Amino acid sequence: QVQLVESGGGLVVPGGSLALSCAASGRSIANYAVGWFRQGPGKEREFVAHIRRTGGTTYYSDSVKGRFTIFRDNAKNTVYLQMNSLKPEDTATYFCAAGGGIIVSSVRTPGQYDYWGQGTQVTVSS
How far is Cα of residue 102 from the mean position of the Cα atoms in its chain? Predict the structure, then answer.
């Protein structure tokens, strides 16, 4: 199985940027499709972005499309989430997740992912 560790969270002012990392160990991240999810206080976990195992096709929630970019570096066994033009409503704990057989219609469903990291906090505030 694969272990995932997120990093890169922190406090940023509105309009700022952060880059999150999801580092894998135990197995190669190249074997998995990877998603980013977030969960704000009192809210359900919501889909943010997904990158396919092969081909690099990406998917985004409407709320982050055009501002966030997910990409992978299999050589570094890491998937990244570049977040630009951050808004206060982006404040949440961000989780990365990996799965081996996620069909396209299910990329937004947390239950389809097999492995999860512990999360990293992102706070957008002036």
Answer: 15
